[in-house]
């Protein structure tokens, strides 16, 4: 699976498809963390939400680079669909970890008052949101949606629902609790569990549909 | 070593509710044998190879055995900026290969223009096909699956491909390849099959050396493959090219004209 991860990271790096999303994310961070007196946790809520969108973008971008025929060759070498999907997930998660660290370290430097538990909470929230983003990106990618236009439309609709709908208890409860300064323990634990369920369900569903279509 | 690498029993394939692409295919691939599959465009060759490579699932029947495969599709879409060497290294690592020292000598043997550092997207069709071939043979597969491997390669690479197929056979692996040209298939295969409308049938692996005639027909006439003496029908552009036994040439020509075909060329052929 690590060989797959390396391959996908190399593909993504060569394609430069990460640039628009990463630059937009860095711009959000520059604006967000410009005021050193602002409390960190609500700001983390905003940048974690942004990372959810970026992770979804990166997942779709990574899986869209290979032509379907070339993907068959990759599958023939990997032999297991799980290795291919797992490799893609790890590659994007690695990118998201770097971006999450950039946000947390940047905010700590700018504010100069970030206690470690708050920074740890910030990083955890970013990673949880990244997992949600990857879970959305997998079924919206070229693996299941052959045309880019439909991919984008599907991703935008699902992202909007996950981020904005209060009754959809995925990332929304955690992000609302963070931005409104509410108690975080319950929403954080719930979000961890739901993120793991979401990525597992997304990977399983995509694998099942790919096998059925093959 | 087992007596067979993979066995297909009554395999059929249908995409959605469409017409079946394959029907009742029985095929055994033993180790150390080269199997050639002859067929026209759309006859089901590529689908059969994808099922052998476990990249497509059969709709009916059973596939027994799952050897490690090296797979070359009929076109190798090289659209990335990654170099040929880097791509092959990634594929080898994904396959589980630790020793990557064979990559550069293999690319040199295939005479890849520009060398191993050439980005994939800058390669011509023939050179991209060489990289595709390299990724398939590099991993020393138990079953080498090649979809029309000779198309797009230059003459020098044809000879190397023939050697690679022979070497794969010698080390006890199986090879299955397709082509639409009977002489090419007969030259390299131990066993020859013909696939027509999704049905696979065995063909004598000895080449029929009796006199034959090549006919180029244009237009949209009826199917002539079932006519007596017709050895091969290959779709080409807006028509077909027939290889017909010389003794049946007049009857087939008459049938073609009656069937609405326009005859463009009739010439004796060597095989």
UniProtKB/TrEMBL annotation, chain A:
The chain crosses the membrane at residues 7-32, 44-63, 84-109, 115-136, 148-168, 188-210. Keywords: Membrane, Transmembrane, Transmembrane helix. This is ABC transporter. It comes from Amycolatopsis samaneae.
């Amino acid at each position: 699976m690590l060989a797959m991860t390396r391959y996908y990271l190399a593909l993504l790096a060569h394609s430069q498809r990460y640039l628009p999303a990463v630059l937009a994310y860095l711009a959000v961070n520059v604006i967000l963390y410009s005021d050193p007196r602002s409390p960190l946790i609500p700001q983390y809520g905003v940048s974690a939400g942004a990372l959810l969108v970026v992770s979804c973008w990166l997942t779709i971008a990574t899986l869209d680079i290979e032509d379907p025929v070339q993907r068959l060759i990759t599958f023939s070498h990997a032999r297991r669909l799980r290795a291919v999907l797992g490799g893609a997930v790890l590659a994007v998660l690695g990118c998201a970890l770097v971006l999450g660290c950039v946000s947390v370290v940047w905010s700590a430097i700018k504010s100069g008052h970030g206690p470690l538990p708050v920074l740890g909470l910030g990083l955890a929230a970013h990673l949880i949101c990244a997992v949600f983003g990857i879970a959305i990106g997998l079924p919206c990618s070229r693996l299941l949606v052959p045309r880019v236009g439909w991919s984008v439309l599907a991703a935008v609709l699902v992202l909007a629902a996950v981020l904005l709908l209060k009754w959809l208890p995925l990332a929304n409860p955690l992000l609302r609790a963070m931005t409104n300064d509410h108690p975080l323990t319950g929403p954080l634990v719930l979000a961890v569990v739901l993120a793991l369920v979401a990525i597992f369900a997304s990977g399983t569903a995509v694998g099942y549909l790919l096998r059925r279509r093959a | 070593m087992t007596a067979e690498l993979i066995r297909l029993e009554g395999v059929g394939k249908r995409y959605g509710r469409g017409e079946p692409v394959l029907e009742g295919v029985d095929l055994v691939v033993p180790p150390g044998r080269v199997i050639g599959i002859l067929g026209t465009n759309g006859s089901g060759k590529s689908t059969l190879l994808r099922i052998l490579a476990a990249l497509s699932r059969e709709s009916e029947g059973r596939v027994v055995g799952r050897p490690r495969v090296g797979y070359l599709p009929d076109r190798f879409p090289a659209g990335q900026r990654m170099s040929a060497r880097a791509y092959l290294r990634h594929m080898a690592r994904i396959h589980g290969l630790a020793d990557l020292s064979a990559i550069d000598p293999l690319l040199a043997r295939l005479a890849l223009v520009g060398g191993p550092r050439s980005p994939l997207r800058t390669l011509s069709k023939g050179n991209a096909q060489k990289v595709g071939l390299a990724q398939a043979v590099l991993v020393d597969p138990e079953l080498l699956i090649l979809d029309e491997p000779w198309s797009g390669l230059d003459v020098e690479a044809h000879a190397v491909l023939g050697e690679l197929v022979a070497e794969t056979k010698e080390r006890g692996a199986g090879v299955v390849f397709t082509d639409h040209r009977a002489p090419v298939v007969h030259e390299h295969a131990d066993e020859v099959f013909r696939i027509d409308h999704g049905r696979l049938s065995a063909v004598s692996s000895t080449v029929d050396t009796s006199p034959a005639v090549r006919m180029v027909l244009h237009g949209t006439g009826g199917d002539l493959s079932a006519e007596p003496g017709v050895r091969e029908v290959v779709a080409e552009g807006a028509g077909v090219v027939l290889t017909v036994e010389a003794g049946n040439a007049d009857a087939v020509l008459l049938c073609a004209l009656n069937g609405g075909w326009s005859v463009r060329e009739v010439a004796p052929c060597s095989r």
